[in-house]
Amino acid sequence: MSESLLEMRGITKRFPGVTANDGVSFDLKPGEIHALVGENGAGKTTLMKILYGLHRPDAGSILVRGAPVTIRGPREAIRLGIGMVHQHFMLFSPFTVLENVTLGEESHTAGVLRPSIPRRRIEKLVKENSLAVDCDSRVEDLSVGVQQRVEILKILYRGAAILVFDEPTAVLTPQEAGELFKTFREMKRQGNGVVFISHKLDEVLEIADRITVIRHGRVVRTIARAEATKQTIAELMVGKPVLLDVKRDALEPGGVVLEVRNLVIRSPRGYAAVDDLSLSVRSGEIYGIAGVEGNGQTELVKAIAEGAEVQSGDILLQGVDIRRMSVRERRERGIAHIPEDRQKEGLLLPFSVAWNIALGSHQRPPFASRLQLINTKAVREHARSVIAQYDIRTPSEETPANALSGGNQQKTVVAREIGTGAILLVAAQPTRGVDIGATEFIHTQLLAARSKGRAVLLISADLDELLALSDRIGVIFKGKIINEFTHDKAVREEVGLYMTGEKSHGAA
After folding, report:
1. Is the distance from CB of 197 to CB of 46 less than 8 angstroms?
2. Which residues contact 336 (CB under 8 A, 6 or more apart)?
3. Using CA atoms, how far apart are residues 412 and 339, in angstroms rounded to an integer?
4. Structure pTM?
5. Prior bond to 366 cis, omega within 30?
6. Taking Cα atoms as reference points, which of 61, 5, 53, 67 lies closest to residue 32?
7. Per-residue pLDDT tens over the stretch 239-268
8. For residues 179 and 130, what is the distance between their CA atoms, to the nearest angstrom?
9. Which of 152, 162, 144, 154 shows the shortest CA–CA distance to 182?
10. What is the pLDDT of residues 377-426, one digit of tens each?
11. What letter does residue 9 receive in the DSSP assignment?
């Protein structure tokens, strides 16, 4: 443990108008799992992109096994034994596991491919690293968790001893996260080093040997696991005390606001993305939908909030069928929508913060007269009030939305949608890619909406978020709600088994 596998010394990286890394030093020892944590925009990903050759530093040096190196691109990083598993996998879905792992590294003799050679090597890596993968399976048929194992195999196959994981558990079930950590421990036992970037502090404390906290591009502190607590890390990340567990008052829900009955939605390829799905959400209730991504959540949200076509079934808002209503009509009847992709669906990025806050209500007073003339003064004044209320960090209300951090972009969307006073709030992945401070704030706002008697349909890939906020949780699998849990009966591990289909329908 004396010699470092990796040392990054005094790394500085500037972009126009911002210093992403300011004299950052970071090291990784053989047989170590070193967590890298910080708020969005703190500089974590930039630092790792420098390590992987995707950015060049303006200052500083990198040493691999004590030798200075210059990393000009990913190919050179791989040659030095550095591998990175990104949040979004880079696999060819129609190819098999073996084909994906060996792509660009195929074994051949006189131009003839020899798949038996890499197969033996891959099977050895599978066994050594506790990676349950079938070489002949097509990637398109694999779950998200197994696809991630294929990404790990790709970098191990190329000889990586320094492995970087960027938010690897973001879309995994508890069981899949447990399997991943088992693989981490095997890598550690073999003397490899793992850099683990995560916002999930419970997981950081479970798996990491050391934790480095970055804030505003600088290292605040590197702390041994034995000295770390969840509260300490959160405070180092944000620079102030953080309320980690939001208070959820017991409430008696009211009448049904949203009712979905026997809904069927077919995908463009003809299969049932949503298959005879039924659920209801009452006023003063948060109904959470848990499931591995790709099981019909997106199609369900689009049908409720965006008027996407459905083949059969009913969508009732306070007893009124809304299936044939336009998006504007749905909003006027009381539906607000926090979309899962804030940049593509939630914001007009070149527009100012003020105009983004007014969107959807801009055609009504106080923003528009009966002649549909826009009152720009009212738009700006309203925006300034909302910016203060929701703590949106922006130089002014006239700042374009694309100049904000991801967390502040999300706050802008949340502020606009909750501010409509809608009776139904459809919140899809409301804290995805958002740091701990913004997450705390958004959770507080969702619970405040519930306290005011609104109905909240919460779709999230973060099971801990669902368990903390939801009054009821419906588990979606292959387009069906296969089980429901009340807040007091929802156990993390059991819900995870239903999410993967290991358990089928039952009462809870």
Report:
1. no
2. 417, 418, 420, 422, 424, 425, 426
3. 12
4. 0.79
5. yes
6. 5
7. 888 777 778 888 999 999 999 999 999 988
8. 8
9. 152
10. 999 999 999 999 988 888 899 999 988 877 789 999 999 999 998 999 99
11. E
